[in-house]
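Aim 2 progress update. The chain analyzed this quarter is reproduced below.
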Amino acid sequence: LLFLSCIFQMDTTQESYLDLFPLDAIVYLTPDSENVLEDIDPSKVYVLGGLVDESIHKKLTLQRAQEQSLQTARLPIREYMVKTVNTKNYHSETLAINQVFDVLSTYYETRSWPAALKAGVSSGKGYVLPDTVKE
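Predicted structure tokens:
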């Protein structure tokens, strides 16, 4: 797991984030959350959970966060992006850790979700910004 504090301070450790931070300061980012991340709070620590195969581990990160009584949030992909027609009919809000990091760091710099999502969500995920849809 990778956790981010104030976006620019990144640490890796063998210690559990549960031992390092107060529970009310931790926000576990998971694509299955009902809560939309609207802004980045510098007083919060954002946990980016990493899974290899999204088809086998559906809702695992949400379940883990709920078991630990943590706040959860998801990136606002469906609020700012639209599904695109593709040959595989594939649409996924599950991103790799580096993609989530790119989204968060770009948002922190620009305060623009469209710019941030464009930076981190590849078109292969089946989502695009509305102004890039070809008629």
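The longest strand covers residues 2-5. Residues 2-128 form a domain with the Alpha/beta knot fold (CATH 3.40.1280.30). These observations will guide the mutagenesis experiments scheduled for the next reporting period.
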